[in-house]
Structure formats: C-alpha cells, structure tokens
C-alpha cells in the first residue's frame, strides 16, 4: 500500500463516495482498489456502487436542484469562487493525489489542478451573466421574451487522463447555471474526483448538488441514461462508449455533450519556424505521455523540411526524461495500463511493417511496467493504423507531403474532427488552411490550445457541444420563449 504524504490528509478519501451529502459505502459493501500506474502499488480502495446507489443519487439531486436553482446567481457564484480558492489552496496535495493515481509528472499535475480550477473561477463569473432577451414583436400588443433556465439534474462520466479538469469543466457550468450534477469518474482515477467533492462540501455547496459515485461503469451509466429525471449527460472518453451512451439516452431524449476521440493532424509547412514547430510538437504530442484527445496524432511535414524537422524533433525528444512522476525532472510518466501499452506497441509495429523508419524510441522503456520510450517514426504510410486511430501514447508518426491541397485532404481524411495544428508564416496560407481544416479547434503556430475562456469541442464523430468559454454554460441551460399578448 502506498503512503501518500499530504498536508491535508482528509483529501484522500478511502472507502466512501459522496451521495446525498453523506460519505457512504456501497450497499453491497464491495470496494475496488486504485493503483499507482508508475509502481503498481495500491493507493486506496473506493466503493463499487451500481444501479441502486445511482438511483438514490438521482433522487437526491432532484431534491437539491429545487433549492439550488432558487439561490441568486451571486450566491451560487460566491460558493463556486470559494470552491476555486480551496482547490488552489490545496493545489499541491491535489496534484500529489493526481500523480499517484494517473502517473503524469507532478509539474503537469499541478498544471492540471490550476487548469481545472480555472473553469470553476470562470463559470463562477459567468453565473451572473446568464442574460435573456426581449425580441421586437411582429404585433403591437405583444411582448416576446426569452428566458434561460437551468436544464435540471445532470450527470457526467469522465475519463482517467484528466481526472480533475474533465470534472470541473462540466460541473462548474452546471452548478453555475443552477443545475445539480452526479459525477462518475473513471475507475483508474476516482481519488481526484472524491478530493474535489471534499472541497465542494467545505465550500458550502449543499448536499446533493455535487455528488460523486464510484463503481460499475455500465450499471451506473445505464441507470443515468434510463432516468427521465436526468435531463443532461456530459461525457468525455472514447468514441465507442460515447456511441453506447448516445444510444442509451435515446429513450429519454437526453441532451448530450460528448467529447470523444480525436485524430489530430499537426502540419509543418516549408515556411514554418522549425524550432517553434518542434516545441509545438513536443507540447502537443508528449504532454501526458501522449494520452490526450487533442494530442497530435499524425504529423505531416512538407518534403523540403522533412529531414531537418525529423532530426530536430529526435534531438529534442532525446531530452525527455521518462520515469515516476514524483521524481524531479521527469517529463513523461507511465501509460495508464497494459491495454494502453499494447495499443502503442501495435501501432508502432504496424507502422514499421508498412515501411516506416524508426528515428528514435520504438520500444518499452527499460524501467519496465507501462513505461514506453518517446518515439519518432518517419515516412509513415497513410495505410498504417496510426493514420486512422488515435494512438494515445508517446509516438510521433511523421508523414511526408508535397502540396497544400494534398495535406488538407490527408488531414481531413478521418471521421474525427477535434483538434488540429499547423505551422506556417504565410498569412494567406494561414487563413486558407485554418478555414479548410474540418476540426472544432485549430492551433496556428502553437501546440497548446486549451484554456477556460475558449470553446473546446469537436465536429464530425469527435462529439457534440462545447466546454469552457461563454458558450460552455449554454449546454446546461434551456431556452424558454414567453409570448405576452393583449398589452
Ligand atoms: N476523449 C478523451 O479524452 C479520451 C479518449 N479515450 C480513448 O479511449 C480509449 C480507451 O480508454 P478508456 O479508458 O477505455 O475510455 P472509456 O471511454 O472506456 O472510459 C471513459 C469513461 O467512460 C466510462 N465507461 C466505460 N464504459 C462505459 C459504459 N458502457 N457506460 C457508461 N460509462 C462507461 C469509464 O468508466 P470505467 O473507467 O469505470 O470503465 C470512464 O469513466 C483510449 O485509448 C483513448 O483512445 C480515453 C480517455 C479519454
Ligand atoms: O484529452 C482530453 O480529454 C482533453 C483534455 C485536454 C485539454 O483540455 O487540453
């Protein structure tokens, strides 16, 4: 069992989840263990809950929402601001919990806590700006109004790659709008979610407004989807599970936000600043060991600069430090589990079998476990698995291209449409390419695009809806049109 040194040990919740304002075990008394992916050592146990507990949480959320929605926006905003302040006060402990269960380097974990908290601060401010409309009426005795009201009881199902930020990005707009939310975190990373719940309680967020349920994903997901009381579900994770949840939500016509897989193109044109492009590629590709849905998945490099870029990238990749995220100087942690490792290995083997050249890495790291060497592959064929599927690992496959039209066609040749990136210094090309890419987000001369003030989301089969920005709160609001006559 791992001993996690914390300044505030109460943040590490063991054996209990937060339902209806009480920290409780599963009805069955069953638990499951959470492990440190860097060492395989157990950190804690959490309850294995299922359908019955989910139904209880939904009932509590419905009761709580009746009160929560009647608070003034200013009051909800104040409590969210307190939650934000508590998260930042405990940033170091929260980062340590995050690194322990997820594996990312501690510096990245600290960054995720600040990033996650920023959504709470932002939506605390937006809570006060949910404006309606008065529409000029077509008849003189009419007054036409638009009200925006909270959608009601909402739920979130979240992944392991951002155990904190993917929760706050959903819960903050929900609570700001006057909704309640039940969160089901990934089984690998429930401890960060439970720590957020501890601080939500301390911030004065009432019982039933923010609940965290741990346990059986299928049972909990099915109970959420089947419930007519839950009017909105927000999910971040694989496209495959997104499809299941969308199907299961059909019977109750639930409003959905889906943030699913990506297959990000990262294009380096021959007029690019190559050093900036290399730094962008490092940030986008190797962040979180390549385990983000916005990671560059396919790097397209123009013929004239291909070999120089490949060499510069390999030199920079050689500086990455692989290891336990708690060790100073480490920049790449382990992959989340054996299945993730197997996927990375299969993508690399397939690319090489189809003619790719190994520039660096290409195998498991000597540290063992699920550590994998940061890898660069050159002259990868578009027939390779890496072209069609996200690798979710530290592998940069470089594809050679000649013309703008060719690379735009290659970049758009996927059912996904989340993030995309390109590097160029030609203003005409920048506009043309930014407009031609079929993606929800485009980074121009940068590998990092995420922040709380911008709308994050995808087109095509990468999902539905937007998170963050002033658009993010609309996902949790219903529009009500009021027509007044006889005035
Ligand atoms: N868009 C993104 O940010 C992410 C994309 N992915 C992609 O998905 C691949 C697989 O990762 P994986 O962790 O399996 O992602 P999943 O989509 O399986 O997991 C995401 C969340 O969905 C839950 N879940 C899984 N199955 C169901 C279900 N039938 N009903 C309701 N909830 C469910 C999981 O719970 P539990 O953990 O308890 O099973 C978890 O909370 C990755 O390799 C990557 O390509 C993964 C994570 C994030
Ligand atoms: O991988 C994801 O699910 C997206 C989170 C990363 C980000 O917000 O940049």
From TrEMBL:
GO cellular component: cytosol
Keywords on record: Oxidoreductase
Cited SUPFAM superfamilies: ALDH-like
Transmembrane segments: none
Superkingdom of source: Bacteria
Pfam families recorded: Aldedh
Similarity section: Belongs to the aldehyde dehydrogenase family.
Protein name according to UniProt: NAD-dependent succinate-semialdehyde dehydrogenase
């Amino acid at each position: 069992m791992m001993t996690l040194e914390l300044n505030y040990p109460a943040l590490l919740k063991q054996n209990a989840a937060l339902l209806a304002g009480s920290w409780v075990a599963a009805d069955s008394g069953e638990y499951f263990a959470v492990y440190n992916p860097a060492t395989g050592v157990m950190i804690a146990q959490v309850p294995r809950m299922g359908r019955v507990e989910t139904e209880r949480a939904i009932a509590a959320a419905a009761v709580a929402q009746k009160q929560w929605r009647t608070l003034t926006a200013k009051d909800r905003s104040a409590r969210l601001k307190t939650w934000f302040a508590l998260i930042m006060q405990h940033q170091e402990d929260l980062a340590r919990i995050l690194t322990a269960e997820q594996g990312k380097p501690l510096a990245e974990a600290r960054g995720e806590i600040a990033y996650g908290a920023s959504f709470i601060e932002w939506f605390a401010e937006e809570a006060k700006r949910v404006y309606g409309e008065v529409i000029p009426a077509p008849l003189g005795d009419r007054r036409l109004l638009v009200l925006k009201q909270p959608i009601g009881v909402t739920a979130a199902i979240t992944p392991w790659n951002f155990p904190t930020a993917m929760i706050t990005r959903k819960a903050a707009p929900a609570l700001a709008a006057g909704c309640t939310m039940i969160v089901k975190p990934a089984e690998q990373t429930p401890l960060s979610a439970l720590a957020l719940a501890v601080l939500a309680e301390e911030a004065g967020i009432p019982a039933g407004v923010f609940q965290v349920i741990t346990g059986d994903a299928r049972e909990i997901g099915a109970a959420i989807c089947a419930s007519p009381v839950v009017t909105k579900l927000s999910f971040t994770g694989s496209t495959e599970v997104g499809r299941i949840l969308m199907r299961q939500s059909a019977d109750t016509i639930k409003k959905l936000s889906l943030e699913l897989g990506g297959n990000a193109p990262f294009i380096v044109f021959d007029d690019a600043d190559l050093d900036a492009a290399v730094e962008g590629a490092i940030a986008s590709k190797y962040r979180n060991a390549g385990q983000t849905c916005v990671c560059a998945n396919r790097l397209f490099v123009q013929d004239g600069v291909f070999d120089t870029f490949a060499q510069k990238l390999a030199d920079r990749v050689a500086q990455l430090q692989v290891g336990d995220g708690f060790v100073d100087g480490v920049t790449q942690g382990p992959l989340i589990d054996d299945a993730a490792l197997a996927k990375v290995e299969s993508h690399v083997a397939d690319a090489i079998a189809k003619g790719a050249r190994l520039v660096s890495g290409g195998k498991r790291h000597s540290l063992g476990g699920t550590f994998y060497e940061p890898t660069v592959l050159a002259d990868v064929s578009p027939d390779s698995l890496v072209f069609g599927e996200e690798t979710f690992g530290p592998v940069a496959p470089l594809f050679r291209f000649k013309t703008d039209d060719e690379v735009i066609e290659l970049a758009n040749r996927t059912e996904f449409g989340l993030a995309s990136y390109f590097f160029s210094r030609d203003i005409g090309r920048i506009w043309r390419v930014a407009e031609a890419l079929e993606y929800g987000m485009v980074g121009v001369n940068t590998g990092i695009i995420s922040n709380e003030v911008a709308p994050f989301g995808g087109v095509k089969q990468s999902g539905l809806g937007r998170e963050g920005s002033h658009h993010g709160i609309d996902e949790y609001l219903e529009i009500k049109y009021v027509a007044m006559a006889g005035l």
